[in-house]
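Re: the multi-chain job from yesterday

Posting the exact lines I submitted so nobody has to dig through the queue logs.
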Amino acid sequence: MTAPAAALAAAVRSGERSAVSVAEEHLAAIDAVDGELHAFLTVLAEQARADAAAVDAAVGAGGDPGPLAGVPVAVKDNLCTRGVPTTCSSRILEHWRPPYDATVVGRLRAAGAVVVGKTNLDEFAMGSSTENSAFGPTRNPYDPSRVPGGSSGGSAVAVAAGLATLALGSDTGGSIRQPAALCGVVGMKPTYGTVSRYGLVAFASSLDQIGPFACSVADAALLYDVIGGHDPMDSTSLDRPAPDSAAAVGQGVEGLRIGLLTEFVEGVDAPVVAAVRAGADALAAAGAAVEEVSVPQLRYGLPAYYLIAPAEASSNLARYDGVRYGLRVDAADVEAMNRATREAGFGPEVKRRIMLGTYALSAGYYDAYYGQAQKVRTLIIDAFEDAYRRFDVLIGATTPSTAFPIGAKVDDPLAMYLSDVCTIPSNLAGHPAMSVPFGADDAGLPIGVQVLAPALGETTMLRVSGALEAAAPVLGAPVVGATR
Amino acid sequence: MGDARRLTREDAAYVARLARLELTDEELDTYAGQLAAVLEHAAQVAALDTAGVVPTAHPLPLENVLRPDEPRPSLERDEVLAAAPAVEDRRFRVPRILGESP
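And the result, structure tokens for all chains:
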């Protein structure tokens, strides 16, 4: 099994490769193809060169720069980077430079990683295509007329096109797994609370989770081990030791009980279903007991999510009021200034979600919508719990289709929301889930198979993902990308 | 406000006011239609029998988190103020609050 990030770090730590040459190579690739793909909003060329030089100096002095020594990493632009623009792809934060680093960014640097840039996303991570960016869409490297998925589309593309070896994204309803599937890379949403959210710009706080993108399952585990672990700066951070999951990847699936979710293959396009079934067969051949299982409550995940997430967002985004940071549009009094600032600063999808959330929380509708959605959330968690009495992990499609054309769903929000139907339940439950590339459709567009596990089940999830990866058909190189 | 499926421009304007959004009439019409479509989809959950089900606000059992009450550095005040749209006397400056005499 290949693990490009682990191999690169080993080469840099041993002095066989210089971190500076690795950084230059990736900066040159970004220069060559990112005009077309638009994965990055900010390229940190000078900072990356300086950080890489520091890694080389540490190696030269006999020190160990860490498990990600010299590895180029792209960071989603909703993760705070001190003194470096953190826009969330929004006009309202276009010129904002945070006064602090997100915990995960600090941990990357401490592990010797070289941050090469900040990546494009749907505004405030609200979207499934990266078309909702105020700074223009990102394009899929397998077909630039198609979307990369979203909201972490820029991070998925950076890894898929070889512009960074690893990337960080955030996943509120599938924003890591869905673009990973559409771009042919590994994307992992860890258990809620295992990775600090300090410095992640909040969208829906009870659902948001930071996680890795990588070219391989082993590399995703490596990055998860670096960013995970308790952080006193995040009050929802689980007080447990840092994860040590990388060793699990090659352990195989002998004796594991795996459920193939009926709800995650019904209504799903035929090539995706074929990939999921081929994946299930491969896991059975590798020694797992695979059985189809129906968990009907999962169908209510999508409608519950589109009440809960906007409700939390409408509250979280109240902070953009033109007072302390970000855009201000002046007006005669404070309230008029607030309204004018928010009208000018937010794009259409963000306004739509704020409207939806405000409505769901408003007097007379709270119980019928938000309150009811919270109860449905309990039903989904209970249904998962029941399924995990019989199965160690569950598998299914990550997305109902492969990458769709840019513009195809922008005028129909509900159709766009439906692309998250298979990813949302894990966020509602706080469970880990990941997408593993498993072949392509007839047009060569990548397909992802999703592996879901109960809370803190990362080790088992990674074992199954590793076995899937080992059995996956070879995916061709992207049409646009770094020459490798 | 009436039935979600018949969300009017006036309903949308009311919600926009609550959310401090200064929407144009065109935006109000667009959002009224789109919100109605999403809410119709959400009616699936509104119709479910959830008698006796405890609501979940958060996936983890939340517990209070305490730390020793020891002073430590906070964000740099000047760095924070440098990001503000308007500053006066090392404080955030805002326009007139409604009803105040000028």
